[in-house]
Amino acid sequence: MKDIFGKALLDYHNGHYTEDIMTSTSISDEDVLPLPYLFRSFTDMPKLEQRALQLAKGNVLDVGCGSGSHSLYLQKKGLNVKAIDISERAIEVAKQRGIKNSEVLNLLDETEAFDSILLLMNGTGIFQELNQVSQYLKHLKSLLNPNGQILIDSSDIKYMYEDEDGGFWIDTNADYYGELDYFISYKGEKEIPMKWLYLDFNTLKLACKTVSLECELILEGDHFDYLARLS
Q1: DSSP label at residue 65
Q2: pTM to 2 decimal places
Q3: d(Cα 37, Cα 44) in Å, to the nearest integer?
Q4: pLDDT tens digits for range 36-75
Q5: What is the rounded distance in angstroms from the CA atom of residue 119 to the CA atom of residue 226?
Q6: Residue 1 is inside which H or E element, if any?
Q7: Torsion region of 181: left, alpha or beta (phi above 0 gives left; psi -120 to 50 gives alpha)
Q8: DSSP string, 147-171
Q9: What is the DSSP letter of 22?
Q10: Rounded to the nearest 10 degrees, how much is the dihedral formed by the CA atoms of 138, 3, 21, 152?
Q11: In angstroms, rounded to a whole number, what is the distance separating the alpha carbons of residues 91 and 188?
Q12: How far is it, in rounded angstroms, from Cα 138 to Cα 3?
């Protein structure tokens, strides 16, 4: 990967903010991802993220931390937080913003144990495809201390396939409808497309059952999104 996302974060952090990230998916047109949003404070976060941060306890792992906004909030609350991301530039930004423990690391390479693991801003996206969900859930489970929890959010994007008559044009012979190709561009440069998974709650709950994880619906958002706690 070219780490365009990290480049944009670093530009913003260093005062070189001139334009935003553009995103699109295999089923949606181009959309703007404003860089200031990726540096938001607790009061500007969606209620799902706020609730997740309120529930976080003990030693915390922030997966896909980006610029580190979630980690910073928890660190200021006195929690011991480790922030990880596969973007080197994102971790550079997180460190510059004052996160004490941050590392360029793929989730599947993490080996420490935690009381709370956060996967926010469509945390299921990191699973990439439905057939990889069990592998990720097993690994996440192995990182939990006794009585530990995983706080994860996602959306049921079935609504994106609805036609004007209220029917759905999902191809039942195709892959799971939440599996998308995700495209990012910034300052004229395009990132290599990546797989991204939006997982509806019932499918997540079923996947959790197969690896002996409890899956509890904590909160539903305004637009088919939800926060779940796995334990």
Answers
A1: -
A2: 0.95
A3: 8
A4: 999 999 999 999 999 999 999 999 999 999 999 999 999 9
A5: 12
A6: none
A7: beta
A8: EEEEEEEEE-GGGGGB-TTS-B---
A9: E
A10: 10
A11: 23
A12: 28
